[in-house]
Amino acid sequence: MEAQVFLASGSPRRKELLTQLGYQFDVLSVDVEEIHQEHETALMYVERLSKDKAQAGVKAIEKTKSKYTPVLGSDTIVVIDGVILEKPKDFEDAKRMLLALSGRQHQVMTAVTIATPEKIRTKTVITQVWFKTLSEQEIEQYWESGEPCDKAGSYGIQGSGGRFVSRIDGSYHAVMGLPLMETDQLLHQFL
């Protein structure tokens, strides 16, 4: 069956979630620089990255295909006290982030964009997440698992990092990287 949509993401979590929605899709590799601009709020930043990824995907398929196929771009960031926590550079960076999240509430913002050459739509989901208090030993063991290396905020709720989460208010799937209901609603505007 031909793809209904292109996914401009190499994230295994986004692939898994889009599969759960039942869409046929092909994955597009896009290269988008993820650098926060000084003037941007966290919300502006996550939405810009989502749009940039979708639009980079549209440009990539315009060169190869004439058929109209929407592109899905998405980005997820973790925010605490207005500070954006991205993917950790190393153990010290991950430790700093996890200690900041320890025993506190933070926000996970996931923006989803669907784009074609003619139209672009973005939806952002903000989920409140609470962490239990973490020991340095828990943080070290978690880092050694390898899981935090490629995750915004240095944790994945769907993996062993889920044991740090005492509760959430919002979309579990958005924290994973792709809010199911909102993504489905956006795709219905295009398909």
TrEMBL record:
<dbReference type="GO" id="GO:0047429">
    <property type="term" value="F:nucleoside triphosphate diphosphatase activity"/>
</dbReference>
<comment type="similarity">
    <text>Belongs to the Maf family. YhdE subfamily.</text>
</comment>
<comment type="function">
    <text>Nucleoside triphosphate pyrophosphatase that hydrolyzes dTTP and UTP. May have a dual role in cell division arrest and in preventing the incorporation of modified nucleotides into cellular nucleic acids.</text>
</comment>
<dbReference type="Pfam" id="PF02545">
    <property type="entry name" value="Maf"/>
</dbReference>
<keyword id="KW-0378">Hydrolase</keyword>
<feature type="site" description="Important for substrate specificity">
    <location>
        <position position="13"/>
    </location>
</feature>
<dbReference type="InterPro" id="IPR029001">
    <property type="entry name" value="ITPase-like_fam"/>
</dbReference>
<protein>
    <recommendedName>
        <fullName>dTTP/UTP pyrophosphatase</fullName>
        <ecNumber>3.6.1.9</ecNumber>
    </recommendedName>
</protein>
<keyword id="KW-0963">Cytoplasm</keyword>
<dbReference type="GO" id="GO:0009117">
    <property type="term" value="P:nucleotide metabolic process"/>
</dbReference>
<feature type="site" description="Important for substrate specificity">
    <location>
        <position position="76"/>
    </location>
</feature>
<dbReference type="GO" id="GO:0005737">
    <property type="term" value="C:cytoplasm"/>
</dbReference>
<feature type="site" description="Important for substrate specificity">
    <location>
        <position position="158"/>
    </location>
</feature>
<dbReference type="InterPro" id="IPR003697">
    <property type="entry name" value="Maf-like"/>
</dbReference>
<keyword id="KW-0546">Nucleotide metabolism</keyword>
<feature type="active site" description="Proton acceptor">
    <location>
        <position position="75"/>
    </location>
</feature>
